[in-house]
Structure prediction request, 89 residues.
Amino acid sequence: MPTLLFPGLHRVLSVEPGANLLEVCEAAHLPIEAACGGFATCNSCRVRVLSGQLGPADEVELPMLDRPDQRLACQVQVWHDAALALDPG
Ligand code: FES
Prediction:
């Protein structure tokens, strides 16, 4: 099972492979917003990848990102270990 580290929050989560990152964060009561409800239109769920791999962003997500280390949690499936910050940086 992939492990997600949130160093700034002192949290470590083991997640089901392929789990949606936003749903994982919400289930763990991490401080993340999702103003559009997960439809990739609000940018409020943006997270920063500190290390590890979350896979490539697709054509829906990519235009919403300012930098390559940012991702929209609502569009990410977790398949590998990663360290994340919930602020977009
Ligand atoms: S919840 Fe709005 S972009 Fe992810």
In short: The first strand starts at residue 3 and ends at 6. Residues 21-27 form the longest helix (7 residues). The radius of gyration is 12 Å.
